[in-house]
Amino acid sequence: xxxxxxxxxxxxxxxxxxxxxxxxxxxxxxxxxxxxxxxxxxxxxxxxxxxxxxxxxxxxxxxxxxxxxxxxxxxxxxxxxxxxxxxxxxxxxxxxxxxxxxxxxxxxxxxxxxxxxxxxxxxxxxxxxxxxxxxxxxxxxxxxxxxxxxxxxxxxxxxxxxxxxxxxxxxxxxxxxxxxxxxxxxxxxxxxxxxxxxxxxxxxxxxxxxxxxxxxxxxxxxxxxxxxxxxxxxxxxxxxxxxxxxxxxxxxxxxxx
Length: 257
Fold this sequence. Notes:
The protein is flat, with a radius of gyration of 20 Å. Helix 1 (2-37) crosses helix 2 and helix 3 (123-144) runs antiparallel to helix 6 (215-256). The chain is built from six helices and two strands, in the order αββααααα. The chain is 67% helix and 2% strand. Residues 66-85 are annotated as: Disordered.
């Protein structure tokens, strides 16, 4: 059972990450490279699309370096930025690796959710849970913290990560209460949970004028990131349901051999 679950999750995570990495390189990487030119030419490692992946791995809470930084403990002396992948093949490889790790992790999470709900994994049920994952992990947080390009103003990273985690948890529980429990009191409670983080408000940057990134590029990046995120989660659900059935048939064939 556990071996079948893990194997199906690995296959689903791999297939989803391959497709998603291709979409990232084709649709969002050019926008990131363009935005970096507005930051003064400093190189940035491409993080996974914020619509896909938390904190540095998952969301809209990734931080961007801005040239040499200063260490207060050394009287403000400059120190070099942390290591980052070089542009080109190295950056592409690290983008793919980060997406693969996120894909496998999310596939395991989807598998655990389906197991906890007692749902038999099929492509159809996997797609439904995958869409719920997209709503909770990508779309709901993006309402307050849309995917952002390098050079755009942002609130402190810790505040954004905390709000992201709160929003994902509240939305996930809210969707469970609405879609699974399905009684008036739980539906009402689920709606309250989904709305609550947005009523509290996402942390926003007080710097709203220094960014030189064109608004059209920022909007295009956010839209493309969310679209890629939807494809990512849908593929995880579909592929997990398919792989679960595949490994089940193989086990049955070996048992009857």
